[in-house]
């Protein structure tokens, strides 16, 4: 396979050479760029040579989910996981390229793209065009944060021994990896919104909860927002919390960061980079069985507004509040829910005392999962 491909490449080169002779001295027609930058980002670690264990390419730092482009037309030679496990992006592996793609180009060169966030968008044998999206930036494999590891080879994309410094390689083809020609920005992943954050933001499993990881400063995407605990530094503050996927940590998906880290908007504002309000997150409902009719209240322990009938009900979340005790049975948790009767009936509170199957000061749903804090 590879041999015949190389033969074809050599034949193509000879053909080009002869055409070049014929056309010598003639003006060339204007052409679209045939080589482009592989990703919008900034250069990090440089080329370290071809020795074993050396850095065979350059690192280009970019936010997770930034599109990665084929720098030139070609045929996909490799599209796979090059590490023991690529399932958990952000959980660094001791070796390998993570999810990666290798492309062989008609001029006999090859390019390699590593550490993608998920399975590549192209498969082996597929023809790709210049600038085609082949995957998205991540940190799978042996990687300490989201970036593209990019290699250029004077030969097949799967032969590290033929790696050359990508900076002069791409410069000779009209592309400045340190800047210059970059493909146009594209949309964030479906259902998400771009936001620029001015500093590394701690992520947590619930708004204001214990830190689970970090969202790096830069262009990031978020899913939605909820109102929560205030985060204040000096006179800047924000009660909004944004659901997002972190750059590092465990768990890293569907975590929360404060909208305090949005760089361009004022206090208690949570807009995306286009100036549009980030939409509210749909409330998650948890199923609970209650053993008796429960009085619903406007606040935990507050005035009764209505009744939640006994049976299978849903609740949104819980807060710690005034104790409700009958005999030896008691519970300090209060559950936000929608009542069956009363006015108002939405977003009212009932005591977790009415949960039928759990013990004192426990507030779990019917699956045994702790109902999350409001
Ligand atoms: Zn690298």
Automatic annotation (TrEMBL):
GO terms for molecular function: metalloendopeptidase activity. InterPro entries: Cell_wall_metabolism_enzyme, Dup_hybrid_motif, M23ase_b-sheet_dom. Keywords: Signal. Pfam families: Peptidase_M23. Residues 55-156 form the M23ase beta-sheet core domain. Residues 1-32 form the signal peptide. This is M23ase beta-sheet core domain-containing protein. It comes from Rhizocola hellebori.
């Amino acid at each position: 396979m590879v041999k015949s491909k190389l033969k074809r490449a050599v034949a193509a080169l000879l053909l080009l050479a002869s055409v070049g002779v014929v056309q010598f001295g003639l003006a060339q027609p204007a052409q679209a760029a045939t080589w482009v930058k592989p990703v919008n980002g900034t250069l990090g670690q440089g080329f370290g040579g071809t020795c074993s264990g050396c850095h065979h390419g350059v690192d280009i730092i970019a936010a997770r989910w930034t599109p990665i482009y084929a720098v030139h037309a070609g045929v996909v030679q490799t599209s796979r996981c090059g590490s023991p496990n690529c399932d958990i992006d952000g959980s660094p592996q001791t070796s390998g390229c993570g999810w990666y793609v290798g492309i062989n180009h008609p001029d006999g060169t090859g390019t390699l793209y590593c550490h993608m966030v998920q399975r590549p968008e192209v498969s082996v044998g597929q023809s790709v065009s210049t600038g085609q999206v082949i995957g998205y930036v991540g940190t799978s494999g042996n990687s300490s944060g989201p970036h593209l590891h990019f290699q250029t080879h004077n030969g097949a994309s799967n032969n590290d021994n033929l790696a050359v410094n990508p900076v002069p390689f791409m410069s000779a083809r009209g592309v400045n990896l340190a800047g210059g020609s970059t493909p146009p920005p594209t949309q964030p992943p479906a259902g998400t919104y771009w936001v620029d954050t001015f500093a590394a933001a701690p992520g947590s499993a619930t708004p204001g909860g214990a830190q689970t990881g970090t969202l790096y400063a830069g262009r990031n995407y978020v899913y939605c927002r909820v109102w929560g605990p205030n985060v204040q530094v000096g006179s800047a503050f924000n009660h909004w919390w944004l659901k997002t996927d972190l750059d590092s940590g465990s768990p890293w998906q569907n975590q929360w960061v404060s909208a305090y880290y949005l760089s361009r908007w004022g206090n208690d504002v949570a807009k995306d980079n286009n100036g549009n309000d980030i939409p509210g997150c749909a409330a998650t409902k948890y199923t609970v069985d209650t053993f008796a009719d429960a009085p619903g209240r406007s606040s935990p322990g507050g005035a009764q507004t209505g009744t939640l009938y006994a049976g299978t009900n849903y609740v949104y979340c819980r807060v710690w509040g005034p104790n409700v005790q009958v005999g030896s049975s008691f519970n300090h948790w209060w559950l936000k829910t929608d009542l069956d009767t009363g006015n108002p009936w939405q977003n009212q509170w009932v005591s977790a005392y009415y949960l039928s199957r759990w013990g004192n000061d426990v507030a779990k749903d019917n699956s045994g999962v702790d109902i999350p804090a409001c």
